[in-house]
Amino acid sequence: MWLKLILFGVIAVAVYRALGGKVPMLDGEKTVEDDPSGDTLVECETCGTYVTIDEAITRKGKHYCSKECVPN
Ligand SMILES: [Zn+2]
Q1: How far is the CA of 43 from the centre of ligand 1 (A)?
Q2: Helices (DSSP H) in 1-72: which residue ranges?
Q3: How far is the CA of 35 from the centre of ligand 1 (A)?
Q4: Which of the two residues, 7 and 1, has the higher pLDDT score?
């Protein structure tokens, strides 16, 4: 039983390497442009500063660079 699993693993690695280390069907990696999160820049509604969406503060669908720019 284990021998079959090991053999299957060896074949899988061999096929993987034969394809240049990439399996398109299993390659879920996307470019930054396709990813809406992370390094996407958004403009602060108040002062116009661009900040990454991770750093931005979002209120009612609008983005702000800091607490000071969020209207009370
Ligand atoms: Zn701002």
Answers
A1: 8
A2: 2-18
A3: 24
A4: 7
